[in-house]
Amino acid sequence: MRLPSLSRSWRFSDRVKLKIIRLASGRPPADILKILHYRREFFGEPFTEWVHQVLRGPSEWSVGERELMATFVSHLNQCRFCEGSHGAIADVTLGPDVTAAVLADWRTAPLRPALRAAFALLEVLTLRPAEVGPEHVEAAYAHGVTEQGVRDVIHVCGIFCTINRIADAVDFAVPDDKGLKGDAYQLLKRGYAIS
Amino acid sequence: MPLHPQNDNEKTAEALLAALRHAVLDGPGSTPSRVRQAVAAAKIEELNQELRDYVETLREHAWRSTDDQVRELLAVGWVEDQVYELTVAVALGAGGRRVDAGLAALARAEARRAAGAPPTATVPTQSLPAAVQATPVAAQAEVRRAAA
After folding, report:
1. Which pLDDT tens digit goes with each residue over B14-31?
2. Taking the mean position of all CA atoms in its chain, how far away is CA A116?
3. Residue A184, CA distances (Å) to A62, A70, A91, A178, B110 in order
């Protein structure tokens, strides 16, 4: 991690919490956890509240579908840490074949029409946000996505266009497959909020 | 998954993003709020050169950021806590820009629907030119960024 002091300045209760995570998992806590607990009021708390609401709150998209969207945005942003982390959750929930097919080409992946329309919107919003217009939203409506469904897709994009940049700027270490899988089960069980 | 009605006590994603923006851009920090807001909005002309390079890298292709870029910021007097704040502010600026663009498009689509206007020409979700379809997604991203 490029800013090592971020690993040393946690409040006491968080030091205990991260120590327990280390003991329970048998490995150091992921870099993302170090960042989220560093001056947690500045970023970690409000960010994870947003993430938890969007990825785990009520939605017409299943948890697995939202995790697949997160994986896709991270892939477009070439963020290996986030693609690996959320791809592992998508693998567990939807199956690894679906994740691989979407990353190879979402246009031909075996997806329901509404989800395919979500990927069309995600792609343009991630790569060319200035080009997004009502026609992109109407294309999603035409495939059965509701207004709230579009809203959820937009927030998934915003979340991962934020955290992908932080992960790469700070240079998060990418866990091995076993670590990614272990983290995936924890995130499915506990969600994202740290407060 | 069925769509559940919004719980009255549940904050909307928009409200949670607003709270995050307030904490990162206006809240207490070791960097002046004005600087955090400038990097989030990518007001490049207001930034000195070493910060300008860092902000541009993070905003456009964060995967290319390097140890040297961070070292350079520390060498000219920024401390790690400040580099962290600036990193988060730039990233949130980029993420927030996508949310703003998406919600603006959504509002325009809703206004058109309320006015009874027919949908604009729909965007195909499967019929891109063959040359683009055959290119891996990450490579397409690179090409589009280069073209932007």
Report:
1. 999 999 999 999 999 999
2. 18
3. 16, 13, 9, 10, 36
CA distance B88 to B58: 10
Domain assignment present for residue B76? The answer is yes
ipTM over 0.85? The verdict is yes
**CA A68 from chain center: how many Å?**
8
Nearest CA in chain A to B83: A3
Q: Would residue B133 count as lying in a domain?
A: no
**CATH number, span A4-190:** 1.20.1290.10
Spatial CA neighbour of A64 closest among A72, A176, A46: A72
Residue type for position B73: L
* A13-54: pLDDT as tens digits: 888 888 888 888 888 888 899 899 999 999 999 999 999 999
How far apart are alpha carbons A88 and A167 in whole angstroms?
A: 17
Would the CB atoms of B29 and A41 count as touching at under 8 Å?
Answer: no
Are A60 and A152 contacting, i.e. CB atoms less than 8 angstroms apart?
yes
What predicted TM-score, i.e. pTM, was given to this entire model?
A: 0.88
* DSSP codes of every residue in B55-84: HHHHHHHGGG--HHHHHHHHHTT--HHHHH
Q: Which residue is listed with tokens 């272990």?
A: A182
Structure tokens at B116: 């009874």
Answer yes or no: do B110 and A76 touch at CB < 8 A.
no
Q: Mind telling me how many Å the CA of B49 is from chain A's nearest CA? A: 18
